[in-house]
Amino acid sequence: MTSKSAAAAARATVYGYPRQGSNRELKKAVEGYWKGRVSAAALRETAAGLRRTNWRRLADDGIHEVPTGDFSYYDHVLDTSVMVGAVPARHREAVETNGLDGYFAMARGTQDVAPLEMTKWFDTNYHYLVPELSPDTVFTADSTKQVAEFEEARALGLSPRPVLVGPVTYLLLAKPAPGVTAGFEPLTLLDRLLPVYAEVLADLRAAGARWVQLDEPALVQDRTPAELNAAARAYRDLGALTDRPKLLVASYFDRLGAALAVLAKAPVDGLALDFTGPAAANLRDLAAVGGLPGRRLVAGVVDGRNVWINDYQQSLTTLGTLLGLAGQVDVAASCSLLHVPLDATAEPDIDPQVARWLAFARQKSAEIATLARGLAQGTDAIAAELAANRADLASRAGSALTHDPAVRARAAAVTESDGHREASYPQRAAAQRDRLRLPLLPTTTIGSFPQTARLRTARADLRAGRIDTATYDERIESEIQEVLAFQEKAGVDVLVHGEPERNDMVQYFAEQLVGYLATQHGWVQSYGTRYVRPPILAGDISRPEPMTVRWTTYAQSLTARPVKGMLTGPVTMLAWSFVRDDQPLAETARQVALALRDEVNDLESAGSSVIQVDEPALRETLPLRAADRAGYLAWATESFRLATSGVRPRTQIHTHMCYAEFGDIIRAIDDLDADVISLEAARSHMQVADELASAGYPREVGPGVYDIHSPRVPSADEAAALLRKGLEAIPAERLWVNPDCGLKTRGWPEVRASLENLVSAATEVRAALPGSAH
Questions:
Q1: Helix or strand (DSSP H, E) at 366
Q2: pLDDT tens, 154-210?
Q3: Catalytic residue among 76, 656, 709, 774, which?
Q4: Would you call 709 a catalytic residue per the annotation?
Q5: pTM of the model
């Protein structure tokens, strides 16, 4: 096929779409099912309705080929485990008895059975359920979901393309099941897994699928020769199948590097590649391996992870180059649109001028369709769109919002000493012990307490004008009183005020900082039924007034025990926002850090003895390629220290991280120079404590003993067992006792029982320690 015919054949497609619905109908239906208010049939009908709406919307927006199989009740990796029969033994009975309940038990656990481990999907804030595999795992194909959803879309008269997690990525994301002998590598099961994929592919072909997409994002990470050989073998074998649809292998989030040559040589029918951000290097690398002559290339030129409008001219230039490298070039987003909100037109509160700079999932679909039309018909066919796009890009570049001289001058004046405490950690630890007088194994929580219906009603009433600010503040005070009273009665040592005034740990601060934009309906899935509204970091950042001092001070007035001041750190403020793409992230992080530094200093001045600055996204934002990590970690740790280093030695700085692979950033955790760090550890069985000990981490640590992402209440014995395991790695003088994460999403009954058990466990273990009276 010539370049001219490749352009004429250009089609628009996407890899996936937001699942929740315009009013989070999926969240409400799933949670209603969990509570017994929604039947299984009603849940399935809601899900089917959302799929139909999504496909029709995509078609209306100009998408020629729609994805199927990307929709999920909870997580697409969990769906893949079901598809290949990788159900842990402890869940098999539940799955066989009631497939839907068993599925959710794998995701959330039950009172008697622990869930699968959960961690971040590459460098995004989406969480997936980690497959558990062992040398004894027997895979069996179940293509029911994949075939049914394909047939649903085809019945609407659309052109569907099933999307599956690829076999190599699936195995590379998996972990050995609990109790499996050390040294087992799930990738060794590849030859056992490939026939199951072959069976699923045959089922989809029998249903009428012409193309199937196999997602292999794990290949954008640094891979060993053995792992690359496994990928080559996988696609040699799948490509050699005769009873299969055409295969489109997709990878995204970064450049493929050496894996691109492997996939380009594989006997598959096409590749789908990311050409945005660092993945723009795929263009050069694709040319270097000789392109894809006679085969299909799906070009991800629209950023699927951020909300800024596409630069049409730049994308068309890239697409024009790609026409000479493939038999057919189609246009797509860089990855699934799962990672962006649904529709920017649902945000009437954003200034219309600024709104012109934004593209959510619907707008990105339209951008993809416009680019496909321009590629197929020439730029004259989209002249009006090109002119409007140029004007919108110029408007953003010239806006006063994006350039505040005072903010930039302050950031430029930062010195090396601004990012370091005035005393060493041993000196600080002694001053803090003398001030706080805490017992061995001090207990605390991570920050948030349950966000009750009463709280949500109060916020809604305030927004609607049904109550005034004074009445709202009285309700917040009442919640803080309840949270403090419970903690004191339970025996918690370092208290929190519970954050009842906060809607989200990033959004709450973004709404009070100049340079951020907040959305009303910009929901994005974080995990399961947990959705967040990432704010939009649109301009230079400053803090006009204190953000947390009032409520922290009020809480401290109610108790003699220390109450932690609670902030979200600069890296997480970036990671869980849609960041500006017109300046380096390091520069933006420094601006945010300086705003937070003002808040930390004000909290100390108001009497706070303990201040926690959370950085759960530090590992999440780690670049996927090792060569890019040193630069990132340098500015990330610098920004945290800049935010926290203005306080006196006797003020204890905490930080918190959760649901990530911490082993990759142990050195960076040390470089933060926090006095105490709390980390997720319950689902991963205290693995992080061993990692910190092996690295010689010298500061205080709180590995979680209560998994807050499950509704089950851990017993005191269970918490004590985890705590004793933690003590095998971390000495008692440096070990804290706390949950994995904040308690916002849990209900009060389970929180009360779990924290009482946590304190009981700490008391029991503490009593057996030498020096426990101190």
A1: helix 361-377
A2: 999 999 999 999 999 999 999 999 989 889 999 999 999 999 999 999 999 999 999
A3: 709
A4: yes
A5: 0.90
